[in-house]
Amino acid sequence: MNTNKIKDFIKNAKNVGEIENPDGFGEARRSEFGDIIYTYVKIKKNMIAEIKFEAFGCHIAFAVAQIISDMVKNMTLEQALSLTEQDLNRVLGQVPPNKEKCISLGLESLKKAIKYYQNNGKFQIPKYRN
Question: Given 82, 83, 127, 129, which residue has the most CB atoms within 10 angstroms?
Fold first, then answer.
């Protein structure tokens, strides 16, 4: 794992925050460590036109959310859904085994946001998030 890369992703973070009236919203938690990632997406013509995230917990979870947001912007939904942990490891570098859940957490949040959009069209952010 390249700690300098992680620091760079955190220091140069963009796409952080909420999207007003998102088309999709995903949430993934790792409650035993307090890690949470929220993902918001706007979809246009079957592509991710805009993506933002909020990440709480470990620095790797934050870096993963940032990497995902950079990678999937302007991807089709199918391309974004096919993103794997190996794809993220190529960018981030191999993470320690006890931090691998941070990678799966980012992917889970992204995929939930897309699935909510695909299943429901417009999605209301749950009241507890407002």
Answer: 83
